[in-house]
């Protein structure tokens, strides 16, 4: 019996790792598409789709199309969350991957402003909306699939695998962007070569689809079905955890999102146009930081499983606030060494809170309504944090000519998230600092 039990445990462990790996690969491909757009918005789209505007106005317009994807994400979160709680996580994740890949591929063939005039940015925005809807269904679903397949004592670790897809997708997008640029004649990349990384999405989505088709449904959702616990309106039931707790959970994730998009996206435009850094150098800096981000997530999620996520998250929030005070001043020195240090610091600090925020949000809701509730928090937080950060930062620089105001903005956002986290953790029962007060499969109607 012991041998049989060991074999079953080994098989379950392999299945959990297979699901986590599949979620990591899928989220990497979706974030590749999303970040590829962000890089192009910072460096290319102002000239291709808004040539009649001034450089500053064109950059702001390009970042506005980038933000449209964030505005669309709550719609995707609501739709995919609803059906993910009603028909299952697996099928909705397959659809989200297809939407993201098809939209990205079509961006690669959209004519520019010189060819079709105003219809060029219109088509760009429409495809960005489709991207946002697809990603809105991905973030929560992948985290839930991985976490709900996880062993009980490794929920943070497994929930962190989809979080690793964010920096992995960023690195993949930047590597493809840089490689394509490096092998093209001068001027050719800006003219038409930028389309190649988008067209590559067609190949990548086929790979991701083949992997996801072999993933089994979440055990937690299967139990909900077997117990006849599927909700007709899961989002309405998810709200039963309480508006106060949901607001604090939303608040704690905003800083990480805002800071990450300033250092990943805004600095590419600001650094090349205002500080005269080489474009390739900045992309390499962001990519190196993302590699550190990717590789340290398993360490931080392991710490959370062993020692509790609360102290780690609060400490990470404080570190993020401190680094925001020095990040842009270091970049503003014009020194490549100082710039590299600034980006490396972000690579070390950002993953501390990012690694567990998905698990914190998911643990807020019982299994029957977890997809809907988690999607709502993640996507609204993404708008308030990452979606607005490049636009706000660009507007501040355009108005003042400097980035001191951007630093103040980031510090204020960090203070908001730090205060939200501390207030939230005081509200949650302290019986287990590694998880929330809601058990993994708590029935709907449980309030914190």
TrEMBL record:
It is found in: Cell membrane. Keywords: Cell membrane, Membrane, Transmembrane, Transmembrane helix, Transport. The chain crosses the membrane at residues 21-45, 57-80, 92-110, 116-136, 157-180, 192-213, 246-268, 280-300, 312-331, 337-356, 376-397, 403-425. It holds the Pfam family Sugar_tr. PROSITE patterns: MFS. Residues 19-431 form the Major facilitator superfamily (MFS) profile domain. Signal peptide: none annotated. CDD domains: MFS_ShiA_like (cd17369). The keyword Transport applies. It is a multi-pass membrane protein. InterPro entries: MFS (IPR011701), MFS_dom (IPR020846), MFS_sugar_transport-like (IPR005828), MFS_trans_sf (IPR036259). PANTHER family: SHIKIMATE TRANSPORTER. This is MFS transporter.
